[in-house]
Amino acid sequence: MEFQRARSEEQREQRKTAILETAAEMLTQMPVAEVSLNELSRRVGLAKSNVLRYFESREAVLLELLDAEMRGWLAALAETSGAVTTGSADARAERLARTIAATLQARPVLCDLLSAQAGVLERNVSTAVVLRHKRATLGIADEIARIVTRALPELDADDALHIAAITILIAAASWPHSTPSEALRAAYEADPAIGKLLMSFDHVVTTTLTLTLTGLLAQHEVRSTED
What we know:
- By secondary structure, this protein is an all-alpha fold.
- It folds into two domains: 1-55, Arc Repressor Mutant, subunit A, CATH 1.10.10; 58-226, Tetracycline Repressor, domain 2, CATH 1.10.357.10.
- It contains eleven helices and no strands.
- Helix 1 (9-27) crosses helix 4 (58-80), helix 4 (58-80) crosses helix 5 (89-105) and helix 4 (58-80) packs across helix 6.
């Protein structure tokens, strides 16, 4: 792909879209850690200096992709969690936790980006880029909270936002541990005792969210009996 110099706002947006689409395609072929600005520039057909006219760094590109991936995940979660409306509160909590875990696991690119968010992607960007990203994150957290309270109206807004934060944190933390390198996977297979350390993403996220949700429900029940 080769581009001439962008001379209009429409052309600039086309360049930005091409850069994002190319980076997104690269993430289906390699982990975040292997996505370099040099390779991105080569694939998109622009000099690295020209890519930096549209995004201030590799991390800025990946943060924008993270926001887009989160929006796609939210749409899937909103659709699949709509059925979590019947049964006891604890049963609904477990079904919601399983739904969240399953929809996250179905998006490995999102989980990989989340695992790199705090330690890598937010480190080589300007205040303006971080503010834009964090404002998008707040909107995403609010939407997760709405999904939680739709399934579990017994919880209040603060509880729901807590679940949103825990969801993002546990996904970011458990993904790299559940997707080991080839060498680490070989070590797990070679020594059954070591293999017990391999985490299941679905199990960790489901269990953590279920325990958190049921714990919050229990707190509300205790408070209601004390009032």
